[in-house]
Amino acid sequence: MTKPGKDVKFRHRGSASSAKGRRLSTSMSDVSENPSEPSRSPTRIEELVKATEVEPANQSEYEKKKANFVTRTIWTLVMIAFFFFCMFAGHIYIIMVVTAVQIISFKEVIAIANVPSKARSLRFTKSLNWYFLGSFMYFVYGESVIYYFKHILLVDRVLLPLATHHRFISFMLYIIGFVFFVSSLQKGHYKFQFTQFAWTHMALFLIVGQAHFVINNIFEGMIWFFLPVAMVITNDIWAYICGITFGRTPLIKISPKKTWEGFLGAWFFTIIFGIGFSNIMSRYKYFICPVNDLGANIWTGLECKPNPVFIPKQYSLPVPLPDGVNLPTTFSIAPMQFHVFALATFASLIAPFGGFFASGLKRTFKIKDFGDSIPGHGGMTDRMDCQFIMGSIAFMYYQSFIAVYKTSVGGIIEAAITGLTAEEQMEVVKILSRHLVNQEVIPSKVLEYLDGQLKRR
Amino acid sequence: MTKPGKDVKFRHRGSASSAKGRRLSTSMSDVSENPSEPSRSPTRIEELVKATEVEPANQSEYEKKKANFVTRTIWTLVMIAFFFFCMFAGHIYIIMVVTAVQIISFKEVIAIANVPSKARSLRFTKSLNWYFLGSFMYFVYGESVIYYFKHILLVDRVLLPLATHHRFISFMLYIIGFVFFVSSLQKGHYKFQFTQFAWTHMALFLIVGQAHFVINNIFEGMIWFFLPVAMVITNDIWAYICGITFGRTPLIKISPKKTWEGFLGAWFFTIIFGIGFSNIMSRYKYFICPVNDLGANIWTGLECKPNPVFIPKQYSLPVPLPDGVNLPTTFSIAPMQFHVFALATFASLIAPFGGFFASGLKRTFKIKDFGDSIPGHGGMTDRMDCQFIMGSIAFMYYQSFIAVYKTSVGGIIEAAITGLTAEEQMEVVKILSRHLVNQEVIPSKVLEYLDGQLKRR
Asked: I need a labelling partner for A247 at 20 to 30 A (CA). Which of A95, A189, A278, B66 fits?
């Protein structure tokens, strides 16, 4: 294996100069192919020159890069293995992974704005950040648990008041933090303290808020979590491959290395990947069923009536084929495939902006990485910037276009029994019976008999 | 009328040196009463000295203050008149007032962080702020309208898709702004642009987010809007009165002029005021009914079954009275009075921190007022800082402890007919009948007859 080849592979895995190499990866790396292009990125060219000259010039730097590459590869494999283990072990484990990711990301983002020398004289700034994280997580996790496990919470005497007053309790927790923040304002530190406050809110909104949607995706079914995650990674890889292979035409100013060819190619391959991958996952109820049992894992499986988007439907061509062309005019396609098209488009078009945003932040604070949480990879936030925004989009899309409106016999019975008096329940029985008589589902005699019996009391 | 007297009155109406005079108004103004107190506020003492010496020393400054006082009084009366006119004219008018207040406040808050010289070279910073305001308002107003006017929206063909996809549409509007923000990042301006971005989000969260709750309060019934507003104003006035009359013991460090006496006195009088005021409002359905008709005003009135909190209940003393004491041991009290106690406590204890927060911001940016939207009063934000946080608390409290869980016979019938198949509806009739038989509300014969009839089909 030649050295430049190794170098390319190294960049491909995510790049050491994180902000530049990783996300702006629709790159026209092969600058020599493109001599007419004005050299907007002297740094990158210098890097390439260095990379090709690395052996004679600087053996030890090459050794260092190689060591880093090995660390990085090992940790990538470890993370992938761990991720799959958790995903198959059960929804609760993958939720724990997302929770850990969000806490580490929050820590990293908070740290870059917290100038320690100043913070030392203010005793509570750091604790307050963690307090806000705790109370906001209490709020969003509570919301999810209440929404998905109502049937368990509402029959538990201890948990019931926590559930019915959840928003008030959460808001009070926030208000306590707010009051404490105002009380801790110290003359001469106002600007620093208010900046911290605003920064914490931004981090809560962008990290914890969006992780909340990712967790809701998991509750709705593993596919709604894993498909967007896999699409973002796929898009990243194909943008890089198409970029170095065909990249010619610059796409946007902000990122001079992005090309139309890389962008369109990645989009195309993300759709192809999404169709195939969703097709495979659709066959396993463990992936498509919402979590009605937190003890489920890949071996026990899950049971549910699948969402109709997974069931193939007949579609006909809107116009007849010309004479002589002997092809089928009807197709059997699961509606999911159309949704995959939309999700792949979001993963290709919008999600990268999460990465650009993170890059901009890093440049603002003149840092290379958000942290060193993952050996060889930099910070957690560096790996997750595009995942958060993609998770939110997937959640909103799912809720708006895919989720089935959840009226069930059980839900209606529950609402009637818990919320109505016996007289009102009788009213429901009578009105619904009359409706069924009108619809000619049951004979009108039933209604007469009911009325007679109920009057006699 | 003597000059010092005028000066006191002038301060009472809200003070010109806004941040200091208005909200920190539990003041120990009468410093001479308190010679042992360490003089933590030399500025204030100097002011007082100036005020008593104002006539011989500086005639024109006194004239200026007097003119400002007249302007201020006139505008106070104009605003009060306008407020009452809108409140009686109908809910839609008072919602328009709140909307105007939030837009003006947003403008003021955005303006103080926007250094114009820098912004001029960046074309879209200002437009982007307004875009975010617009899309966030679209989101929150849409949420309210959908929640309270579902029955109108769901039967309208044009509005239905806007309602069912509301969150997705709003989120996409936000994402468009986000993508545009990232695209508009310019080298050398990163710090300024990210600060603007964070600042806009804070303003949206603290102003538009909280105004959303205030508007929901209006929809729930005029009393839930007007009572908190009036309580904050009452508390403000009484804190000032009790502070200058009894003020001795300093309360907290952040605001050396706050005293325990002023705080406790204001709390007491706010409770008294709240009990009387809510008692009066409870008698008018225009105030206690939720808005089921947007065309209603004080003359047409509103109709509804009042919330049970407004209906007096019998309460008994938990312990018997000692022998010989001949007093009634049962009382008839509307539960609302207990809720008034809680709300008054929030208005006295928590709401002032909204004002402290705003003061801190003003000191950070070294400005006297947020703007000059109201002649003689300073900015809109200066008047509203405590109202926003009180409105949110009132909303959360109302939702958690007062709102009646809205299960109705009509709602259940609607859910069953629109969401279930005929078979499932039959299932509901049977299960509910069986429940009523189990509860011995109807004879078991009914169930047997129903089963027989339904099987025969």
From this structure: A278
Q: Do B201 and A205 touch (CB under 8 A)?
A: yes
pLDDT tens for A245-295 read 887 887 766 667 778 888 889 999 999 999 999 999 999 889 998 887 778
Rounded Cα–Cα distance for residues B267 and B263 (Å): 6
A341-357 b/e with 16+ CB inside 10 Å = b?
eebbebbbebbbbbbbb
Crossing angle for the helix pair B222-246 and B336-349, to the nearest 10 degrees:
50
Would you list the domain boundaries of chain A?
Answer: 3-402, 409-456
Residue pointed to by tokens 């971005």:
B197
Count Cβ atoms within 10 A of the Cβ of residue B264 and give its class: 0-12 exposed, 13-18 middle, 19 or more buried: middle
Number of helices and strands in chain A (H, E):
21, 4
Asked if residue B350 lies in contact with residue A179, where contact means CB atoms within 8 angstroms, the answer is yes
Question: What six digits make up the tokens of B239?
Answer: 């804190």
Q: Rounded CA gap, A442 and B457, in Å?
A: 8
Give the ipTM.
0.76
Residues 101-140 of A with CB under 8 A from B: none
Q: Which residue of B has its CA nearest to A171?
A: B396
Q: Measure CB to CB from residue A198 to each of B198, B350, B399 and give the nearest one.
A: B198
Cβ count within 10 A of residue B145: 18
The answer to whether A380 and A388 have CB atoms below 8 angstroms apart is no
Condensed to tens digits (0 to 9), the pLDDT of residues A51-98 reads: 444 445 566 788 888 888 888 888 889 988 999 999 889 899 999 999
